[in-house]
Design brief:
two-stranded antiparallel sheet, mainly alpha, single chain, about 0% strand, 2 strands
Length: about 300
């Protein structure tokens, strides 16, 4: 029983890690007023580019860098179209999701990819602890970067001048503009930061957990990330809790058949996404979102 529980906990944390990286980026974007629908494309592009980069260089660690660059390029396209050319951000995001899904599917059949995986790093003594040891202290080394990324993102948004201007752009862009803040620029920068982190999350999924790229391997995780931000009430600690809940739901989907619990397979596959929909349905209106979330900025129009 203890071994089964330890397996489920370890799987939950592993599946939470890529969500958490991407959710840190989505949190930044949404606090600036952008619902970044293309986070799914950033994760998927990051996953493919990480495996491609690892195949070119022979290093899974370099693959992570390639993954971040892919996320950054997709974010640049989204930011320029949405916050410079004033194209509807939802249309841009959905178009990018479709484009990256089709492009990666095509390239998967056209490019020779070899599997690479970053090294595991077990923390001495701590990884041998019963139950929590394998769940918290026995992961691939990039997973431990979250220990620094999460407080850094919190400080950036909540304690830095940049973060203050970012939040102003998401709460009251007209007032922010009057005070001299370049609202469009701050929103573009937030999307770029989201691209880097989401690209890294997708890259970690590919070269950290799986060691290969499969068609549509993110399978809607970008939308789960958006749900996690809503679940957390646009607060970083709540967002991370949401990622853990969705990661645990995904882990149960994989673990239950292995534990001999036989449920409808399609229901198990749908469970994490059903949970995400329920979270958005019941929590979106109970938490206070940034006042200008999803609203385009037009100077001089209140």
């Amino acid at each position: 029983m203890i071994d089964d529980l330890a397996m489920v906990l370890a799987s939950s944390v592993r599946l939470t890690v890529p969500l958490a990286f991407a959710a840190c980026g989505e949190y930044i974007a949404e606090r600036a007023g952008t619902i970044n629908i293309s986070v799914e494309a950033m994760m998927l592009g990051g996953a493919f580019n990480a495996v491609w980069g690892a195949s070119l260089t022979g290093s899974a660690s370099f693959g992570l860098v390639f993954g971040m660059l892919a996320g950054l390029v997709i974010a640049f396209v989204h930011a320029e179209f949405s916050h410079r050319l004033s194209v509807n951000t939802y249309v841009v995001g959905l178009a990018l999701n479709a484009l990256v899904l089709g492009l990666t599917s095509f390239l998967l059949d056209s490019v020779d990819l070899t599997g690479h995986q970053v090294d595991a790093l077990n923390i001495p003594v701590l990884s041998d602890l019963p139950l929590l040891g394998p769940a918290l202290f026995a992961h691939r080394w990039p997973a431990y970067l979250l220990v620094g990324v999460i407080p850094l993102v919190w400080w950036l948004v909540q304690r830095s001048r940049f973060g203050l201007e970012l939040r102003a752009a998401g709460e009251n862009p007209q007032s922010a503009d009057v005070t001299g803040i370049d609202v469009r620029r701050r929103r573009r920068q937030s999307v770029l930061l989201c691209g880097v982190l989401a690209g890294f999350g997708g890259a970690y999924l590919a070269v950290g957990e799986v060691g290969a790229f499969n068609q549509n391997m993110t399978a809607g995780r970008g939308f789960v990330v958006i749900a996690a931000v809503i679940f957390g009430g646009w607060k970083l600690r709540g967002t991370m809790a949401g990622c853990l809940v969705f990661g645990a739901a995904d882990a149960m989907r994989l673990a239950l058949p292995a534990l001999g619990v036989h449920l409808n397979s399609q229901l198990l596959i749908a469970a994490p996404y059903l949970l995400a929909l329920l979270a958005m349905m019941f929590l979106a209106k109970t938490h206070r979102q940034p006042a200008a979330l999803g609203a385009p900025f037009v100077r001089g129009i209140v």
